Amino acid sequence: MNTSKILILLGILTFVFSASAQKIKIKKGVILIDKVEIPIKVESEYITTKGGIIGDFHHILTFSDVSTSNVFVIVEHIGKMMSPNGVKETWLEISDPSKEKTNSVDLDRKFGGGKKGIVNHLMNKYQFFTIEGTVNQNKITEFFNTTTESKAKAKANKGKAKQKEADDRVSKIEPFVKNDLTTIVSGGRMGTEVIGTVNAPDKYHDTRTTPIKIYDLDNNLIATATTDILSPVTVSLINSSVFDYKNRTQLNGGISNQYFLTELVENIVAKGYVLGNQINEGKKIAYQEKKEEQAIQYEKDKDDYETRKRNSLNIYDKKGYIIDEDDKKWEGKIGIAFEEIKKPNDPSDPFDGPGMVEVGHTYGNGVGLKYINEKGKEKYKSFASKKRIRFCVINEDQTETCYLGAKMKNKGLELVDGALSSLSFDTSLYYEIISENDKTVVVRDVVENKYGILRKDQKKGFQFNAGNAEKNNTGLSEYLGKELNEELKNLDYTKVESAIKVAEFYIKD
Fold first, then answer.
1. Rg (CA), the chain
2. How far is 403 from 124, CA to CA, in rounded Å?
3. Which tens digit of pLDDT belongs to each residue from 443-464?
C-alpha cells in the first residue's frame, strides 16, 4: 500500500475515532465538547401536540453562533405514534433561520438521539460546525441546496392521511348503539337508520368465553371482540385481520356498556366496515367486475381463437363432398380437426362448451358434414377414417383437395397412444391425396408432412421412413412385392417427387 493511501486511511480512522470518542454535554444552552465550552448556543422549546396520540412529541432546538449572536440553523425533533402503544416514527426538520428552506432527515443511530444526538448529527454528520465551535456556512448552504425527504416523515404523513380518512368515515356514518344494546344505527344518538346489530355479554370478563359479535344488515359477521379490565380491546375482522385499541370506557354493565359498544363500532367503521349492506353489495360489485373482466378476456380469446383456426391445419365449414363406404355421395360443408385448437367458453352462456372440432379424440380420424336433408333441414353426420372414406373440399379457385381414410404401416406409435387414450383401437387417419392411379394412391400425412403409398388391393398403406434408408427400402420392397431398383433405393423420401416415382414404378410391368 502506498504512502498516500495509508495517510487517507489514517485520516478516516482518526475522524471516526474522534467522532465516536467525543463527549457532548449541554448545560444551560451551552455546548461542551470533551468538557470544553464551544461558542455555540442551543435553545430548547417543547411544543404541545394537539389531536395526536400519547407519545407524540415536538421539540425545537435553535442553534446560534455566540460570537455573532446569529441563529444559523433551527432543528425540530418530531415524533409520531403510528398507533397507541405501537411504532413511533421520529425525524428531524432542519431549517435555515428564516425557515424559507427546510429539509427533513432521518435520525442516524450511529450519531445517537435526544439533544446530544442532534448536536452530534449537526457537528459530525452534516459538519455544520467544528468541535471548536466554528460555523461552516458552506456546509449549511450545501445542505439546503439539496432537497431531502425523511422516510419516517413519509410514513407518518401516510398514516396521518389514513387516519383522517378513518375519522371522516366515522363522522359521516356516526354509528351509535341504541339503548337496547343490540341495535346499531347511523346518524348518532338521534339516528333511525339501522345498519347492524351487536351481541355482547354484560361484563367484560365474559368476553373471554363469549366474544362480542358485530353483524351487518345481511347478518354477515363483521367482527368479534374481547376485552379485560387491564387489557385493550382486541378486534378480529371479517378479513381475518386483528387490531387493538385502548378503550375509554369498560363493559361493566349499565350505561357504560352503551358507550363501550358505540366506541367499538366506531373503531370497526374506522377500519372501513360501514355495516349496512356493504359486504353483500361488495360481493355483487366484485362479481359484476369479474364478469366484465371475463367478457373482455373472452373477446380477446375469441379473436385469438379465430386467428389460430385460420392458421391451423384444420378444415372448418368448407364446401365439399364425402364418398362413403357404399359409394354414396354426400354434399355440404366439411369440418375436420387435424390438431387441437381449444375453443374459449363464453362466460355468459352456461351451456357453451367444446364444439365439433374440440371434442377429445385422436385428431385426424373423423370428418363431419353439415348437409340439408330431403326435408330442407340442416343435419350433421360424421364419417370415420377406418372405413376408407374419401372426402374432398372445394377451394376458392374451384379446384379440389381430397383426403382418404387409411391405416399405414411404418406409422409411429403416437397413433396407438392416441387410440388407447380415447378408448379406441382405431389407428387410421385421413391423409391428403397427392396422386392416384388404378392401382395406388400417394398420400401425405397432414400433421407430420410425411408421404406414403397405398395399394388399392391392400387394407393398409406404407408410410416412407425417410430417416432410415435401409429399413425404408426393405419395408417398401415387401409392401410392393417387388425389388426396388437402385434409383428408388437412393431417393429422398421427404420429397413428394419420390413418392410419385414409387407409384409409377409399381404400376409398371
1. 44
2. 89
3. 999 999 999 999 999 999 999 9
